[in-house]
Amino acid sequence: MKIKIISSMIIFIGLSTIAYPKISELYADYQQQKLIKEWQENLAIIDNEDTIEIENKKIQNLCQECNISTKINENKLNAEEQKKREEEKKKEEEKAAREKENYIQKYMEGVLKIDKIKFSQPILKGATKENMKISVASIENTGKAGEIGNYAIAGHRSRTFGRNFNRLEEVEAGDTVKVDSGDNQYKYTVTEKLYVKPEEVWVLYSNGKDKEITLITCHPMNNPTQRLIIKGKIID
After folding, report:
1. Would you list the DSSP string of 34-48?
2. Which residue range is the domain that position 173 belongs to?
3. What does the record give as the active site (predicted)?
4. Cα–Cα distance between 69 and 37 in angstroms, integer?
5. CA 124 to CA 139: how far, in whole Å?
6. How many domains does the chain have?
């Protein structure tokens, strides 16, 4: 009986030893595919800028109509009521500004600076819709500033001059990109500018030895079909 148990254990251990590399490989592939899916979901948010612009225009048009209607009604109000309205509006704007500032402070992990295009904006953690409406944002599960790996930062482009990554296409190889983490300041030299298809997530991979940075936005601004990629390596 003992001999049968020992034999079974030996066979089980042998099979497990043979199967382990394959199981390990399958698990690694699963994790890789999961990571790629997360990255693609993050990057897909970048391509929604045109939709955002259209929605913003709709809102602006509605606001203009509201303003016209409001002005007609305000003419009927006395000066005291108008003053009260203005004070309430000011309080609401101040409250919104405070909430935005608190939100930025909560999710901010640094400041991205590109002197050539007069760019300086907070880097928010996670390329979510909420974060990218406010500023540029780091893509989770990539690298970190100043460390070995590929620190990937995504941002929208818009038709407003200088907003977010609108002028990123002006950046060329040899230019400098800076990241201020609060504790340290890191400088990267731009090594290349690429135009890739939306599904090409390889641009987020790290070579495992360099301290890299990758800036990502949609291209062109009107009806984007590609992504503009700026890659750089740290200046030690």
Report:
1. HHHHHHHHHHHHHTT
2. 109-234
3. 156, 218
4. 47
5. 9
6. 1
